[in-house]
Structures are given as C-alpha cells and as structure tokens.
Design a protein that fits this description.
The complex is a heterodimer of chains A (331) and B (259).
Chain A: E1 8-19, E2 22-33, E3 37-41, H1 48-55, E4 63-68, E5 71-72, H2 79-88, E6 89-92, H3 104-114, H4 119-132, H5 148-159, E7 166-170, H6 178-193, E8 197-201, H7 205-211, E9 214-219, E10 222-227, H8 229-236, E11 240-245, H9 251-257, E12 264-270, E13 273-278, H10 284-293, E14 298-304, H11 308-316
Parallel strand pairs in A: 3-8, 3-9, 6-7, 7-8
Antiparallel strand pairs in A: 1-2, 1-4, 4-5, 9-10, 11-13, 11-14, 12-13
Helix pairs in contact in A: 3-4, 3-5, 8-11
Chain B: H1 3-23, H2 26-46, H3 61-79, H4 82-91, H5 93-98, H6 104-133, H7 141-169, H8 172-188, H9 201-209, H10 211-225, H11 231-254
Classes of the chains: A alpha/beta (331), B mainly alpha (259).
Chain lengths: 331, 259
C-alpha cells in the first residue's frame, strides 16, 4: 500500500483493453508511486505496452478505470485538462519516433517548444539533456545518418525535455550499448530519487532486480504478480541447478539422475541443457552429487540462486529468453 | 506561458520545421514549379488563337490563362499537403508531437502556414513567368491584396481537405488517387481554362459552385481589371476553409492515439 510519502501518480483499477476480438489486457490493477521505479515484465503479447499506453492516456480502457496525476479517465480528457496532463507525463514508445530529415538539435528544440518551454529554458534543457545522453556532438547532423543507439538516445532526451513527473518508458534500453544502458538506469534512479514516478518495460532482469522498487509480471494480458523484487524472490524464487551436457539431454534421464532426492520440485531439459528446480535450497549438495555420479555426460553444473528469472519462469512457465523482443525474420 | 502565446510559438515552430524540410527536398520544389510552367506553355500556345467571347477584345488567351494557372498551382500544391502527414505518421513523429500539450489546431496551422506561404511564392514565380511569356496584366494593389486573401483561403481549404484524406487513409497511394480524382474534375469544371459563357450550360452551372472558379475569378478580376473580388465568393471560400480546417484539426487530434 502506498503511504503518504509515496502518493500514487497513476492507478489502473481492474482495467481491460480489447482490440476487436483480441483481449490484450484483462482485469489488471496497478499503482505507480512517486519516487519509485516500477518494471513491467512479460513476453510479447503479455499486455505491457497496452498497459503503458492506457496509463499514458493514449488509449482508453475497454473496462475498468484509470487515473493519472489526479486526472480520472485521462484518455477522454480534453482541453486544458489534457494539456496539463501531457505537460507532466512522458510516454516514450518502443520505436524511436524521430524525423530522419531533421537534425538532432532541431528535433529537441521543436519538442521543447511544443511542451511550452521558453527560449532560454529550452536552450538550457536541450544542452543539458544532449550532453547527458551523449548526443551533444550530433545536434547538427540529420537523424537519417544516426546509428540505432544514437537514435534511441535522442528519443530518450526528447522525451525528458519537459522534466515530467511521470515517466512511462517502453523498452528504453533496446539498442543501447552497455554504457548507454548503465547511464539510462542511473538517470531513472536519479529521477525516481527526485520524487518522479517511473514505469519501465524491460527484458533486462538483472537491471530490474537491481533498480526496480516494484516488478509487475504480466502474461497473456493478465497481471500475475506485482511486488518488490526482494519480496517476489523470497516468495516465489527457487534455487535451481543448471546442467550442460555433451549430448542431448532427455528430461526422463535427468529425472532418473535425481530420483529419490527430497526437495526436487521440477526437472526440465531441452537440447544439451537441463535444469533441476528445487523446492528446498538445502537439496543442492545432494543434487550436485547425484548429477556428477550419473551416467549423463555432464560438462558443467551451475547453481542458480533464487532470482527474478526463476520467479518469472515459475509464474509464466516460460524461459526468460522469451522476454527478448523478436527480431524481424525470426519466428 | 499564456495559451495564445504558446499557440503562436507552436505555429511558428511547426512552420519553421516544414520550411526546413521543404528546402532539404529541392526536387519537390522544382517539380511543383515545373508543373505550372507546363500548363502555361502547353495551354498558352495551344489556345493562343482561342477567342474569348465575354472578355475585353484586347485580352489574349495567355492573359486570361495566367490567373487560372496561378490558382491551379495553389490547388495542386495544397492538395498534396497531406503527404507530409503520412510521412510523419510512418516515422511516428506526428503522434509524438500530438502527445505534447500543443493543440492539434496549432500544429495544423503551422504546417499550413508553411505550405500556403510556399504556394504564394510559387504563384509569384508563375506570374513572373507569365509576364516573361508576354501576358499583359493590369492589377490594382488593393484588389490584389484581397485576391491574395482569396488564394490563401482556397489554399487553406484544399490543404485541410488533403490533410483530412491523408489522416484517414494513411497511405501515399490514396493521396495520388485523391489528387487526380478531385483536381482534374475541379479544373475542367472551373473557369481556370475557359470562360464560363463559353461552357455548355450544365458545365457552367457546376462551374458557378466550384470553389476553384470563385478563386480564379477573384484573382482574374484583380490582375486583369484591377476590380475588387466578389465578396460573396470570398465569404464562401472562407466558410469552406474554416469548416475543412476544423475537420482536419479533429482528424489530427485523433492521430495522437497512434503513438
């Protein structure tokens, strides 16, 4: 429950969203609090982007209610109420939305003007953000010549030019290098520290575990869990032993290898890799010994401590690798 | 920042952006200047001996044609205004701009201001070309000022209509069809190329209601005779421009959902 020190910036209550026959979001409850980073996790089609667009007042819900920065039914707001809301929130879509024929500087100045910043303030913010996001050396160049990472940085800088109270970011780190990702998360942590509410769709479980105050896991349009990473891991995370074999591993063979060991919850295998999930972490030693002594041609054994990955796996039945966005041309 | 001042800043910023893009695509500018040149040369020489029954006998067809080609230049340029929105929808830049506090009407006004000012420059080039080809114009300054207003209103009306089509269809192919399906009938049922009295009765009746006729006549009255354009025609064009602008602004506001 949010306290007085953490007022709710945005609230979705029992929201559903339908696109024709397809139910993209089903009865979801979510609160975004000031000063907190909320990470939305889920595979393609889980409903993360739809939820973010509902909170950004881009789409109205088909059912349920949304309240954002004190504005009820924000997608239906018009006139001053809508403009006031847009002045205080930033929604950054997954795809960098930039005009390739304009220069980086022209885009930043145009967006800042549309947010109502006065000339002096505009120049100060544009210079500050361009430097912070590492695009200051590219302000005179046309976006058509930018690399993917540079476009992403410009997209982010343009989205934050009005210093929003609520930040809704859809995969903001996609296409960024390690340095860019580190900078992005540091910036989000800093803004949350300044009292801003931040919601991020990401597939970076490590960053989510490290920086999020709250993680919401969605699958098939439903919210499966929402809590702090620590609480989720404590409640749902499980220790596992990952097995790498020299040949194709069969689930039955792996089950036989650990048969009779108390505390084994689940066994899975695919290709040359397998995983023995434990309901009790004190079973690790016995499982390791049994696997080492088994006839399986084991190349490597690795103990996986309870993590968000194991929480995600347990809740959705999917591998965290499925969180990664599909590339064009791949099934 | 006050609402009006903010709107004005948005209009100027979007206008500046549209001009920058226009200047970075000189090919488009060249083509849009080439087209009136072709109209002028082909029609001017083809109908050079065409007798104009209800006009001053001292007027040649080229004199008559020049104001018509000016209005046609505006028609063709304005009816392609929507293509820019389609490009902006494809990059996602337009929905992004529409999710700022800027009013859609201010964004639209900025784009149309750039488009209309470009078209007026093109009209000036067309007139210079007509004079170079031997057209004899007898304009009066005050009448030309009002006729320019008629041209501006006509450009706003058709640029708004083009924007409505573009925002609804969201495909460049649709714009090509629109340009041909709307412009050609408009031109051939107007007084741009032929005086109304020399049209068959049915066509003349249509021509009277044609907004292109209203604009061409206003422009022709001002340029050839120094007469003030007809106020009722101006009013009708203003009404058409206001209604189409309002619909285009509404369509633009709806495109915010596409972000």
């Amino acid at each position: 429950m949010p306290t007085e020190a953490e007022p709710v910036a945005a609230r979705a209550s029992r929201v559903s969203r339908r696109f024709g026959e397809h139910l993209a979001l089903r009865d979801v409850d979510l609160e975004l609090e000031d000063g907190q980073i909320t990470v939305l996790l889920g595979a393609n089609g889980a409903g993360k982007t739809t939820l973010l667009r509902l909170l950004a007042a881009v789409l109205p819900p088909s059912a349920g209610t949304v309240e954002v920065l004190g504005v009820a039914a924000p997608a239906a707001a018009s006139g001053r109420r809508a403009r006031g809301l847009r002045r205080r929130l930033a929604y950054l879509a997954q795809r960098p939305s930039l005009d390739p024929e304009m220069t980086g500087g022209e885009i930043l100045h145009l967006v800042a003007t549309l947010y109502g910043l006065r000339r002096r303030e505009r120049r100060r913010r544009v210079a500050g953000l361009a430097a912070a996001f590492g695009v200051d050396g590219h302000l005179e160049r046309r976006v058509a010549g930018f690399s993917g990472g540079l476009r992403r940085r410009l997209h982010l800088a343009a989205g934050l030019v009005h210093d929003p109270q609520l930040l809704l970011l859809d995969e903001p780190a996609a296409g960024l290098d390690d340095q860019g990702r580190a900078f992005l998360w540091a910036e989000l942590v800093r803004r949350a520290g300044d009292g801003r509410a931040v919601a991020v769709v990401t597939h970076d479980l490590t960053a989510a575990e490290r920086h999020a105050h709250k993680v919401a896991i969605l699958d098939g349009g439903s919210l499966l869990a929402c809590d702090s990473p620590g609480a989720l891991i404590a409640e749902l995370g499980r220790t596992a032993v990952a097995v790498t074999a020299a040949e194709t591993l069969e689930r039955r063979a792996l089950e036989r290898a650990v048969a009779g060991i108390e505390g084994v919850a689940e066994v899975a295998a695919s290709g040359g890799r397998g995983r023995v999930v434990l309901a009790r972490s004190d079973a690790v030693r016995r499982v390791l010994a049994a696997l080492a002594a088994s006839p399986l041609q084991v190349l490597d054994l690795e103990v996986e401590r309870p993590s968000l990955a194991s929480v995600y796996r347990r809740l959705t039945g999917r591998e965290p690798a499925e969180l990664l966005p599909r590339r064009r041309g791949t099934p | 920042m006050s609402g009006l001042r903010q709107d004005l800043e948005v209009v100027l910023a979007v206008c500046g952006r549209t001009w920058i893009k226009t200047l970075r695509r000189p090919v488009v500018l060249t083509f849009s200047l080439g087209q009136p040149l072709i109209w002028m040369l082909f029609f001017g020489f083809l109908f050079a001996r065409y007798r104009l029954l209800d006009l001053d006998p001292r007027l040649g067809y080229l004199d008559f044609l020049a104001p018509g080609v000016c209005a046609m230049t505006v028609l063709f340029g304005a009816s392609q205004a929507g293509i820019g929105w389609i490009r902006d929808l494809q990059t996602g830049f337009l929905p992004r701009l529409l999710n700022t506090p800027a009013r859609p009407a201010a964004i639209l006004a900025g784009k149309l201001l750039a488009d209309v000012s470009r078209l007026l420059l093109q009209v000036a080039v067309v007139l210079a070309l007509a004079l170079a080809l031997g057209a004899r114009l007898r304009p009066a300054a005050s009448a030309v000022a009002v006729a320019v207003l008629a041209l501006v209103l006509f450009a706003v009306a058709f640029a708004s209509l083009s924007s409505i089509i573009a925002l609804a269809a969201r495909a460049q192919e649709a714009m090509a069809a629109f340009v041909h399906l709307v412009n050609m009938p408009l031109i051939f049922t107007s007084t741009a190329l032929v005086p109304q009295r020399q049209m068959p009765d049915a066509l003349a009746a249509i021509a009277r209601l044609n907004p292109l006729t209203l604009t061409v006549d206003a422009w022709r009255d001002a340029l050839l005779f120094g007469h003030q354009p007809d106020a009722s025609g101006l009013l009708l064009t203003a009404l058409l421009a206001a209604v189409l602008f309002a619909f285009a602004a509404r369509g633009l506001g709806r495109a915010a959902e596409l972000y």
